């Protein structure tokens, strides 16, 4: 397992979907995980601090665990299948299955380390220094598509196929 740190939450150009970005603590790779808007809001709220008079669900969970003398020791992102990541909270030595976003939200609130399996960073990790190149390539593709759209007109879609023989 490799320790990763919360880097940021970005909004993907594809469908305005939030993307959780975790950065390798001692290396150049980043792991991007698509999450829901509600999950993004929960993670970001944890960074802003809590209101003790109105605890959020994750704050309540940490408080409830504390009353049982239980502590979130770490969060581990262990696997991925079809873009869905699996994670475990380690609570008093016991692994508890959780969503990555919930695990990160809890870890940020209680200061627990976050880890990702080596094979995930090997397969899906993007070098932080290559992120600008990836974004630039995506921008170029969008620009090329816009230029294509500027050259077509509605008649291109209404005419049927032309018969070369007649």
Q: What does this molecule look like?
A:
The protein has about 170 residues and is an alpha+beta fold. The protein has six helices and eight strands; from the N terminus they run βββααβββαβαβαα. An eight-stranded mixed sheet has the order 6-5-4-7-1-2-3-8. Helix 1 packs parallel to helix 3 (about 100-110) and helix 2 crosses helix 3. The protein is globular and about 70 Å long.
Give a quick summary of the entry.
The protein has 166 residues and is of the alpha+beta class. It has helices spanning 37-48, 57-67, 100-110, 118-124, 131-151, 155-158; strands at residues 2-11, 18-24, 29-34, 72-81, 84-91, 94-98, 114-116, 126-127.
Strand order, main sheet: write it out. 6-5-4-7-1-2-3-8
Instruction: State the major sheet.
Output: 8 strands, mixed
The helical percent reads 25-40%
Chain-averaged pLDDT? 80
Indicate the proportion of strand residues.
25-35%
Number of helices: 6
Which H/E pattern describes the elements?
EEEHHEEEHEHEHH
List the quaternary state of the chains.
single chain
Number of strands: 8
- Terminal Cα separation, in Å? 67 Å
The coarse silhouette is globular
- Radius of gyration equals 22 Å
């Amino acid at each position: 397992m490799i320790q990763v740190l919360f880097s940021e939450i970005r909004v993907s150009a594809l469908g305005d979907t939030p993307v959780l970005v975790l950065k390798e603590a001692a290396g150049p790779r980043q792991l991007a995980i698509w999450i829901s808007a509600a999950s993004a809001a929960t993670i970001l709220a944890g960074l802003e601090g809590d209101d003790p008079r109105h605890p959020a669900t994750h704050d309540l969970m940490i408080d409830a665990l504390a009353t049982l003398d239980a502590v979130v020791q770490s969060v581990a992102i262990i696997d991925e299948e079809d873009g869905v990541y699996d994670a475990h909270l380690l609570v008093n030595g016991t692994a508890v299955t959780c969503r990555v976003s919930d695990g990160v939200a809890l870890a940020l609130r209680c200061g627990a380390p976050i880890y990702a399996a080596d094979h995930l960073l090997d397969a899906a990790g993007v070098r932080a220094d290559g992120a600008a190149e990836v974004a630039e390539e995506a921008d170029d593709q969008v620009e090329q598509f816009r230029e294509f759209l500027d050259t077509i007109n509605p008649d291109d879609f209404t005419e049927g196929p032309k018969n070369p023989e007649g």
